Request: fold
Amino acid sequence: MSVNVFDSKEVQQLLAAAVNLNSDEGNPRMKQVCHRLLSDLFKAIDELDITPDEVWLGINYLNKLGQDGEAALLAAGLGLEKYLDIRMDAEDKEAGITGATPRTIEGPLYYAGAPVRDGMAKLDVDPDADAGPLVIHGTVTGPDGQPLEGAVVECWHANSKGFYSHFDPTGAQSDFNLRGAVRTGADGKYEFRTLMPVGYGCPPHGSTQQLLNVLARHGNRPAHVHIFTSADGHRKLTTQFNIEGDPLIWDDFAYATREELIPKVVEKTGGAALGLKDDAYKSIEFNVTLSGLVGGKDNQLVNRLRAAATA
Ligand code: DHB
Ligand code: FE
Reply:
């Protein structure tokens, strides 16, 4: 039996009371947002006739999500993180900001504190028999196309099992394995010597995968490499590139793939001279163009809780 009570005075008063709307105390912005979100939830319960059993299923799910530490993973899997990117892209378009390397989601697996090297960093600390050598290199330029000196490029990616150091459920990796940072010289160039990653999959028994299963969705990402780039006088860029040829490139559970972020993978030899584990290696050129500050500020800097340690 469907009833509609949302618009009643009793429910509207309940919503106002729940967020203390009629008091001057508390945080007005949080009140505004909580009131809207709670109202939308109540309305949905009314309109879809969501049952008490379904409501409690959802609440118990949120508890489990927190216990699993997977809220940020779910945010990406449900497209919320992509949606924030779509909005920032639209803001840029409206402001006439074009030409920079496209952003894409950060994901939940960054770990701050990797040592910053000049020009080149070797990222593989641990041996990985199943991963071949990979060199990632490029030039950081500003909106005028000129190389940026002193830019810091941070890089993190998974190993051949699709696991990230610090978040590896097997505990197999050293702290900053496959994570590093490089400061560019006058030529704006950076280089990472590392090992080829494999795509990430959500923990199979975690709450994110549990919900994806109900939606008949997989929880896998194509192989990818995360890049942060910062430089004085420019906006910080959060992006990733995919490894060309991965079958999941256009089927990423986190919706991070973009046409412009699939650089060519080039086969090379001469790895021995570079200190790589094999002479044959793969090379990816990924150039980064940063955008300028807006009104002297990085108007899109994202603050979120990030794991951190000192190397
Ligand atoms: C997510 C993003 C990643 O880059 C990753 O490796 C795993 C998960 C995510 O957005 O949920
Ligand atoms: Fe990732």
Q: What stands out?
A: The longest strand covers residues 133-141. Residues 65 and 207 are 5 Å apart (CA to CA). The domain at 80-308 is CATH 2.60.130.10 (Protocatechuate 3,4-Dioxygenase, subunit A).
